Structure formats: C-alpha cells, structure tokens
C-alpha cells in the first residue's frame, strides 16, 4: 500500500506480510529508507544476501536493487524519494527544504559506510528517535483526510539528519588500514563543512585539529596519499557530479554553493581534474 503525500515522495506501509512484490519504484528511486517493524528474513541486495530482523533499518541509494524474502510475517514502513523529487520543483514542493534534504542525502551517497545498507547507530537513543519519527510519518500518511504536512516535513528533515550523523559516526569509529582515526575525523569535518569554504583553509583546519599550519597538509598526505587541497577539490567535484546527475541546478548555482568563483572557474577545475567539460559530462548522462 503506497501513496504520495508530497509529490515524488512515496510512503509505503505493509502489515504482517509473507510476500513482497518487486518494488515498482526501483528504476526511479533516488533514496529509500526501510524500517522493519517486525518479522525476519533476508534481503538480496545487488546479488548479495543479508538478514533483516525486527527494528532494523536499511537505506538504499540509486541503482540499488533489492528483493525481500520474509521467513516470518513482516511489517515495514518505506520512505522513497524519487529521482524526480529533486528535479521538478512544483508549487506543491516549493515550500519544502529540498536543497537541505539533498545535501543530507548526498552526504550518505558519498560516504564509505552507506554500502553497509543496514544502519548502525552511535547510541540506542538515536535509533529510538529514528523509529519514532518514521512511525510518525507513517501515521500521518494513514490519516488520509487530515494529514499534517508540517509534521511530515519536519520529521523527514530530522530523519535524514539522524541518518547522515550516524553514518559519519561509523566512518569515525571504523579505523581503516590506511587511515588513522584522526584522519577520518578530518575527512568527516571536510565533508560536513564542504559548503563552508572559509573553514576549510589549511589554517582553520590546523586550528580545529590542534596541529601546526605547515604540518596538517603533510600529515594528511602521509595517511591518504592525496594532498589536502586535492582531496577537498575532488570531494567537491563528486558533489558537482551528483548534482548534475540528479538535480536541475544550473552550473552557476552549483559553483556558488561550493565556493567556486563562477561557472567558468568550476568548468576549468572540472576539466582539469576530470578531463572533461561540464557540458560534455551532462551530455554523457542522457
């Protein structure tokens, strides 16, 4: 049972089912949150099989294909942001914080931990909050005659924030072979502040992480094999690619948001690092 309360966001709730049809929204879904209220079974995600249990939460990104195989009666709530939600800003959606929501989701898309699919949480309280908010959205969805768009809008904002925050926590807590926890903290800080160019100078970063100005760049490159400046530019360009692929934002808008002088400056940097112009990149998306 699915319905769109906000245009191009689908909210689906299923109670005590032992069979789920293949999701008809897979090819047009940008981002999806699935909460398993009860039940157990497996999910085949992109050919890999993982277990799900009651009170587990999964996130899916573009091109993820999953099939549910319940072993016991399963109840779920799913919130699906369709690709068109971030492209067609209609009068129905123009009052929503669409850009803020996109920023939260792109943090998840560009995180190393999103491939875990099942959400892990820094605290039990965060998970409790997320479940409560998801249930609140579902309850408003069921209230077909008088749903409250304010509750739905603000609940979705907090849900996305909680997911992004806890994926950052996972990045910090998982110490990779080539990355110290300090390095991961620096990377998380860069990701969180990528739209605040003024705090990503070498001096500001060194001050934030209690290092000498002339040492933090050396330290970063030693642990990542990439210079600090190049890492920041490459991450910005990942976000540029995501916006070009999934939104209707103009080059000038993207340039302004990410701290480039103008669209010409952005195009020059993009071509230098990617070997292709912005227009050619967009042409290849068609």
From TrEMBL:
SMART domains: HTH_ARAC (SM00342). One of its GO terms (molecular function) is sequence-specific DNA binding. The keyword Endoplasmic reticulum does not apply. Residues 184-284 form the HTH araC/xylS-type domain. Keywords: DNA-binding, Transcription, Transcription regulation. InterPro entries: AraC-bd (IPR003313), BAH_dom (IPR001025), Homeodomain-like_sf (IPR009057), HTH-like (IPR037923), HTH_AraC (IPR018060). Residues 57-206 form the BAH domain. This is AraC family transcriptional regulator. It comes from Nonlabens arenilitoris. The lineage of its organism: Bacteria, Pseudomonadati, Bacteroidota, Flavobacteriia, Flavobacteriales.
């Amino acid at each position: 049972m699915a319905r769109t309360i906000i245009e191009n966001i689908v909210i689906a709730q299923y109670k005590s089912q032992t069979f789920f049809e293949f999701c008809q929204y897979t090819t047009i879904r940008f981002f999806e949150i699935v909460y398993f209220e009860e039940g157990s079974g497996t999910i085949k995600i992109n050919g890999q099989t993982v277990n799900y249990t009651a009170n587990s939460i999964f996130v899916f990104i573009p091109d993820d294909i999953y099939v549910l195989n319940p072993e016991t009666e399963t109840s779920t709530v799913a919130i699906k942001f369709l690709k068109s939600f971030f492209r067609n800003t209609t009068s129905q959606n123009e009052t929503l914080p669409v850009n803020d929501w996109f920023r939260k989701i792109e943090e998840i898309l560009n995180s190393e931990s999103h491939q875990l699919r099942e959400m892990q949480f820094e605290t039990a309280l965060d998970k409790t909050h997320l479940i409560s908010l998801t249930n609140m959205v579902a309850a408003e969805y069921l209230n077909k005659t008088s749903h409250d768009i304010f509750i739905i809008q603000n609940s979705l904002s907090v849900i996305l924030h909680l997911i992004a925050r806890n994926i950052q926590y996972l990045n910090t807590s998982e110490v990779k072979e080539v990355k110290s926890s300090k390095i991961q903290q620096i990377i998380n800080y860069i990701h969180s502040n990528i739209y605040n160019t003024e705090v990503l100078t070498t001096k500001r970063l060194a001050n934030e992480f209690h290092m000498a100005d002339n040492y933090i760049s050396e330290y970063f490159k030693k642990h990542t094999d990439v210079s600090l400046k190049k890492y920041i530019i490459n991450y910005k360009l990942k976000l540029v690619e995501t916006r070009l692929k999934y939104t209707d934002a103009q080059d000038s808008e993207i340039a302004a948001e990410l701290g480039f002088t103008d669209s010409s400056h952005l195009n020059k940097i993009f071509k230098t690092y990617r070997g292709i112009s912005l227009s050619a990149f967009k042409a290849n998306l068609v």
